Amino acid sequence: MTEIFSIALIWSTIRLSTPLILAALGGMFSERSGVINIALEGMMLAGAFAAASVTHAVGNPFVGVLAGMAAGLVIALIHAVACINYKADQVVTGTAINILMIGMPAFLSGAFFLSSGSTPQIPKENLIALTPMAIAFVLILITLATWYALYKTPFGLRLRSVGENPEAADAAGVRVARMRYVGVLLSGVLAGVAGAYISIGQSSLFTRNMTSGRGFIALAALIFGKWRPVQTMLACLLFGLTEAVTIQMQGVVKLPSGEDIPVQFIHMVPYLLTIIVLAGFIGSSRPPKAIGIPYQKER
Amino acid sequence: MSLFRELIFPLIAVVAAFFVGGILILVIGDNPLQAYGLLFGSAFSWPVGIGYTLFYATPLIFTGLAVLVAFRCGLLNIGAEGQLYIGAFATAWVGITFAGLSPWLLIPMCFIAAILGGGMWGAIPGVLKARFGSHEVINTIMLNFIAVALLSYFTQYHYKSPGDPIMQTVPIGEGAHIARLGGFIPGLPEFIPLNLAFVLALICCGLVYIFLWRTKWGYELRATGTNPSAAEYGGISVRKQIIVAMTISGALAGMVGINEVLGYRYRYYDGFSDNYGFTGIAVALLGRNHPVGVIISALLFAILQRGGIPVDAFTEHVTKDIVQVLQGTIILFVAAEAFFRGPFAKFGLLKRSKV
């Protein structure tokens, strides 16, 4: 067992949790404002593709990250316009975005890079070398900043109020639609960074559907963390740890019969935990009251 | 007027999506008309094009119906993906385990396995919602991933032929194969996997219609969807309806396995579903949550799927990914129907709706 539980495992956990934490905190801004965001996956894919393409074209990874943020923002804008202005079903819109974003990057890379869904390899000198320590520092900073913004600023109070009781917030003079826009757009920016991290941080190119469900794990972590910043970060670390353990275990730890331990059961852990928590077996996880309900201003 | 309203918005959504797609094709430097010509041309050629289009429509009719039934009860089942995998594996398991039985016994058993497997997987979020009030959307997303992991485990460790590099089970018994329609329709070659499951899908459309609009149970289910508190007051158990709706929904999704396993591959193939469950949401929405609408929109999405192949091959830049771009855009426009309603009301074509 000692081969598994080591410093390397901690670093690996941090690396694997990073996109989850970014996306989950992003999702928090959206959901606390009352807009369901199952489009995190699509926003991450957009960010990942834009970051890899732009870094390839420009040769500067920082510009790439900015492009990833911009791409996430654009996708979030579509979600926001549909859900807030046109009162579309938020889950359906999110599903549409996820399907769209499986196709769109592949469509564009097929056209621009003549590939079947991936961008060209980016040379190592054009990538940011990230040390786990630096990442951990940034993550803690972002989590604390989110916590501070949500609970200690007038902005956070307004954001939470439109997610809990938009009528009351409206009566108190808060502009509901505008706060929700801010929430959704922030989620797009953070999910875009998460995607950029996956394509040009963990890897050196974009491949088709490369987030492989991490947007949904982030969503699971958000629910497991009860829509609160610090708990959500811890949930992401836990889910990152399960992924890290699976990777470290492969080929190292064997069952007494000499076979590999089936990784599939470890993959299930985040999803099972989320169902259990949502059902109220471990404390209760209560979503924002007005989540999923379009707000119609009285005339 | 009412039928006009039912038809006009889905139609506009589709046209608008093709317009957006056309602009994208122009931007990357191809001719949209040529691409769309290829997209539709191949789907309508007899017999191969039409045969494949109907084959691709089969799973989408099942998943579209699945989403429809849940939706009529006020639930959004985005777990059809997981339910159809469980149904497919269950039917394959029966086909493998009882391979020696006579077809008269084995085929009904396989059908029941698909229905029960999908139904059970659909019932889980139903029970969780009815018992604990936890939201079916989240639970079905989670159950999709759990289903995929679980079946990948069973395939890899228990039902694969030793040494097979492909993640698929051993074949099912010959007795479990269901007939391909090529055997009945003159001119339709038998290599086209269109099979009896397509007929079954059409029958299910009729059954769902009769169930929802011609029976007391269907009435109770729809009453729950329209106004749960009024239904509860009228003596309907909302909790029971939620479980019933999710179970039927899952069972319908599970029947995709009949098409896939008993009529096409004759084994369970890991990860076979090309987003059928999610496309089912689009099919149901575009079809206005009505069985007839489901058939029409399933055919449209099947045409896209079939047509993507020649578009990929015969255009300079456009890949088959245009299909997913179009699908996503169609759902987006259908969901944001109010986007079109505004201009329509402005020009006096429609009365502004109450919503």
Write a concise keyword list for the protein shown above.
heterodimer; A: 299 residues; mainly alpha; ABC transporter involved in vitamin B12 uptake, BtuC; 11 helices; 0% strand; B: 72% helix; globular; disordered C terminus
Any overview of this molecule?
The complex is a heterodimer of chains A (299) and B (355). With 299 residues, chain A is an all-alpha fold. Chain A has a single domain, classed as ABC transporter involved in vitamin B12 uptake, BtuC, CATH 1.10.3470. Helices cover 69% and strands 0% of the residues of chain A. Chain A has helices at 7-32, 40-58, 61-85, 90-112, 132-152, 154-164, 166-171, 176-202, 214-224, 229-249, 264-278. In chain A, helix 1 packs across helix 9 and helix 9 (214-224) crosses helix 11 (264-278). The radius of gyration of chain A is 19 Å and the shape is globular. Chain A starts with 6 loop residues before the first helix and ends in a 21-residue tail after the last helix. The mean pLDDT of chain A is 89. Chain B has 355 residues and is mostly helical. Chain B has a domain at 62-301. Chain B is built from 15 helices and no strands. Chain B has helices at 2-27, 32-43, 48-72, 80-97, 103-132, 136-159, 196-214, 216-226, 228-233, 238-254, 256-265, 276-286, 291-314, 322-335, 338-346. The longest helix of chain B is centred in the first third of the chain and has 30 residues, at 103-132. Residues 350-355 of chain B have low confidence and may be disordered. Classes of the chains: A mainly alpha (299), B mainly alpha (355). Chains A and B meet through helix 3, helix 4, helix 9 and helix 11 of A and helix 5, helix 6, helix 12 and helix 14 of B.
